[in-house]
Amino acid sequence: METIKYVIDGITKFSEIDFYDDGCQPNTGCHYSIDYKIQSGDLNKVIQDFMSFTGCDDKKSVLIDSCEVDGRIDIQVMENANGDVPSKMEIENWKKGKCVLYSVIYTAYVERHAITEPSLVELLGKNASEYQTY
Question: Which tens digit of pLDDT belongs to each residue from 24-66?
């Protein structure tokens, strides 16, 4: 029997300072590799779990097959200095130039895994007799 799983195995985070009036600032970008795994037999659940991980609640901020690469997902969010979704007050202060926020893009690649349960006896052939079988 074959089972299908959709897997994200690792996430990349790129963040840069974003001033409300001036946009993203040059030479402020940072890349991070995040060791995080998401998997499910339901592709929509994988995307939803990725959105939850990033704090994104708007599907319009999710770009699938991003940069014309099959399986790539980019999610763009704003974050405060702690890496959290900014509060309404922080956003208002950011718009007034009183708070620094970061434009962040999370990137992940979804892989489709077809999982089968092979017969070990068949795969091992004559060597299978070296093991106990039921």
Answer: 999 999 999 999 999 999 999 999 999 999 999 999 999 999 9
CA torsion, points 67, 69, 75, 79, in degrees to nearest 10? Answer: -60
Cross-strand partners of 73:
64, 108
How far apart, in whole angstroms, are the C-alpha atoms of residue 60 and residue 57?
A: 9
Contact 76, 70 (CB under 8 A): no
pLDDT of residue 1 exceeding 90: no
Bridge partner residues of 80 (DSSP): none
Alpha-carbon span 60 to 93, nearest angstrom: 24
Alpha helices in the chain (DSSP H): 43-54, 88-95, 120-124
C-alpha separations of 116 from 8, 62, 119 in Å:
19, 31, 9
**pLDDT confidence band for 126 (50 / 70 / 90):** confident
